[in-house]
Amino acid sequence: MKSPFDSLQTTVVLGLVLTVVMVFLVMGIADHGVGAPLPEGHGGIAMFVARWAHVVSGIMWIGLLWYFNFVQVPSMAEIPAELKPAVSKFIAPRALWWFRWAAASTVLFGVVLAGAGGYIVDALALGLTDRGADTSIIGFGIWFALIMAFNVWFIIWPNQKKALGIVTATDDEKKKAARMAFLASRTNLMLSLPMLFAMLGMRHFADLIS
Ligand code: HEM
Question: What pTM does this model have?
Answer without folding.
Answer: 0.94
